[in-house]
Amino acid sequence: MIRLTRLNKSYPMASSKLHVLKGIDLSIAPGELVAIMGASGSGKSTLLNVLGLLDGYDDGDYHLDGQRIGQMSETKAAGLRASLLGFVFQSFNLIPFKTAVENVALPLYYQEVPRRKRNKLAEEYLDRVGLADRAGHLPRELSGGQQQRVAIARALISNPKVILADEPTGALDSQTSLEVMEVLREINATGVTLLIVTHEREVAARTRRVIRLRDGRIEGDGPPETVFGTASPAPAAFAHVVASTSDSAPAAVLAT
Amino acid sequence: MIEIDTWQEIFDTVRKNKLRTFLTGFSVAWGILMLIVLLGSGQGLSKGVEYGFRDDATNSIWIRSGQTSVPWKGLRPGRTVQFTNEDYDTIREGVKGVEHITSRFFIRGTLTVAWHGETSSFDVRAVHPDHQHLEKSIVTEGRFLNPTDVDEHRKVAVIGERVKAQLFRAAPALGEYLEIKGVPFQVVGVFTDVGGEGEQEKIYIPISTAQRTYGGANKVAMIMMTVGDASVDESQAIATDLRLRVAERHDFDPDDKRAVFISNAVVEFQRFVDLMGGIRAFVWVIGIGTLLAGVVGVSNIMMIAVKERTKEIGIRKAVGATPLSVMSLILKEAILVTGVAGYVGLVAGVALLELMSRSLGESEMFRNPEVDFGVAVSATLLLVVAGGVAGFFPARKAAAIRPVEALRDE
User: Alpha helix (H) ranges present in B260-372?
Assistant: First the structure.
């Protein structure tokens, strides 16, 4: 699904260049659930932006869904983003003056789906993340977890092949973080490739593959247990919550 | 369907950002209001001037006599030039381009006019029948003076409507005799004049009768004529011809500006027409300038709005908005806001003009300020263009927003 070959990316600074990604080689198969970890400044967000076609790269190769992504016009990038990718951000990035359902429907507006149809779809997706009863609320009337679930529904509505999540739980408390992770795992279970940038071990532990970045290079790549060592990544308290959420209907449990 | 959606999207944005929209719209509404008020006032001014000309023919040339100021062919300066009936005949027969011609004779002393014990004093003008065309007198009863009246020295008078009202009240005036300075004249006609009440307090009598009755011999005070639809140049040629002929007859230097005074209404009228054209152009320049300031204001506010909406635009782009769609979103919003606000300004401007024209009433210099349909249409067109211009730069800026920078969390 995603293949990076010796990818380099640097930002021009006042006098020199800041080399952020130093020859990244990476391959992600369809349906994988991957966490990208690293300290701040390790290049993980830059990597996500390049993967999400929000930013270009200097040299190397990037293949997304079999297509080579080279230098392309904004318009073409927008088209690819709309058809292949969904985004989830740390600060949710909902449009503040639009209701939950309007926010979810926005990607379909740009795909020229008629209003009635896209609003109906948006309500369905809100229902999937357990927020059917919040459709008419503005983002500021929702809790952080709810806002993030609206953002997830928005990322899902265009039926993307890959969802890129940049610190999706960064602004949430640990309880809500786990709930959001649970929603993301369920989405992944339907076959959507999911990349999560995070610095939280608990979050990374809930994925199947962890890629550690350090100074623009891949330092470690493998299942969470291998990357983190043998120690159990999740404390007992989390294990309890996770156990209780995983076998309940998400709509009921997540509507906190 | 998609079109409606786009506008729906814009309406949503506008509705949810009321203050911003109001500020944006206000500057345009103000600009248009000023433009309309200025244009209307310009119109009012030019109508006022036109009104000033309504009384007399705008194609007339008047000639009055004066005193010579330079020596000529051994004659001393300071001689009084006195026009006579012969001057009238010479001009009428000799000067080409004269359409209607009349001379006037001034009667000396106070002019008491009496009828059945009612006595008043009015201005009596002794003229030729053509005077009707020069003053634009409108006969409402009977007739105006005719050539036979002049030839036969008839004692007849044509009176203004206010003369009739003051002397005769409700009684019929036609055929009655009124005494002017003790001499009876028969009323043969009543006239009105658009020049106002003063012009309706006149009495016209044949010049020949006045010369004989009031001791004027063949003296004439002034000669007035119209020149048809002569151009400015043609009218000036006629005036020069007039001066040369009179100078020859009365032996004075044709260049002596004090011997005779010639006023050429064609030239004066043209001067006013030019002035009005100038005022109109000036008003447009000022109005467009005001509007331009409004447009720059809109552009500025939209620029800030785009800055404010950087994140929103970044989100839109992340979920698949193309640069073109972002640009059209901002551009259409600008056009919508300027269009609606401008229309409000247009209506308010027209209303203000209406109010002005009502409260000012019948002023001499400023009448019926209003804008015509053509002006309103061009102002509206101007608005749409202005909206486009106002929106273009912010829209381009918005389209260039990079989502990765817009969505940065700092």
Answer: 265-308, 310-318, 323-360
Verify whether the Cβ–Cβ distance B320 to A107 is below 8 Å: yes
What does the angle CA A96 – CA A97 – CA A102 come to, to the nearest 5 degrees?
95
Backbone angles phi, psi at B140, to 5 degrees: -105, -25
Interface check for B311 against chain A (CB to CB < 8 A): the answer is yes
> How many CB pairs below 8 A link A and B?
77
Domains of chain A by start residue, with CATH: 29-42+73-207+214-254 (3.40.50.300)
Buried b (16+ CB within 10 A) or exposed e, A10-48: beeeeeeeeebbeebebebeeebbbbbbbeeebbbbbbb
* pTM for this prediction: 0.63
Which residues of A fall within a CB distance of 8 Å from B324?
75
Alpha carbon separation from B267 to A26, A196, B238 (Å, rounded): 90, 87, 12
Q: Do A115 and B8 touch (CB under 8 A)?
A: yes
> Which is nearest to A150 in space by CA: A91, A206, A79?
A91
Q: Please list every residue in chain B whose beta carbon sits closer than 8 Å to the beta carbon of residue A97.
A: 12-13, 16-17
Would you call B194 an interface residue with chain A, using a CB distance cutoff of 8 Å? no
List pLDDT tens digits, range B260-274: 999 998 888 888 888
Question: Would you state the pLDDT for residue A255?
Answer: 42
Evaluate if residue A86 carries a pLDDT over 50: yes
A125 or A231, which is more confident? A125
State residue B298's pLDDT score: 75
Name the residue facing B319 among A96, A110, A114 (closest C-beta). Answer: A110
B308 touches chain A (CB under 8 A): no
Tell me, yes or no, if B402 comes closer than 8 A to chain A by beta carbon. Answer: yes
Q: How far apart, in whole angstroms, are the C-alpha atoms of residue A14 and residue A20? A: 15
pLDDT for residue A237 is more than 50: no
Find the CB nearest B324 among A75, A89, A111: A75
CA distance B351 to B237: 47
Asked if the model's pLDDT at residue A99 lies above 70, the reply is: yes
Residue B317 and residue A78: Cβ atoms within 8 Å? Answer: yes
Q: Which helix (H) or strand (E) holds A26?
A: strand A17-28
Q: What is the pLDDT of residue B2?
A: 52
Backbone angles phi, psi at B297, to 5 degrees: -60, -45
Q: What is the ipTM of this complex?
A: 0.79
Question: Where do runs of H (alpha helix) occur along chain A?
Answer: 44-51, 74-84, 100-110, 115-128, 144-157, 174-189, 201-205, 224-228, 236-246, 250-254
Residue B90: count of CB within 10 angstroms of its CB: 17
Q: Is B365 a residue whose pLDDT tops 70?
A: no
Q: Taking CB atoms and an 8 Å cutoff, what residues of chain B touch A87? A: 318-319
Displacement of CA B306 from its chain's centroid (Å): 47
Q: Which residues pair with residue A28 across a beta bridge?
A: A2
Q: Please indicate whether residue A164 or residue A246 has the higher confidence score (pLDDT).
A: A164
* Residue among B319, B324, B408 with most chain A CBs within 10 A, to mutate: B319
Using the predicted structure, report yes or no on whether residue B410 has a pLDDT greater than 50: no
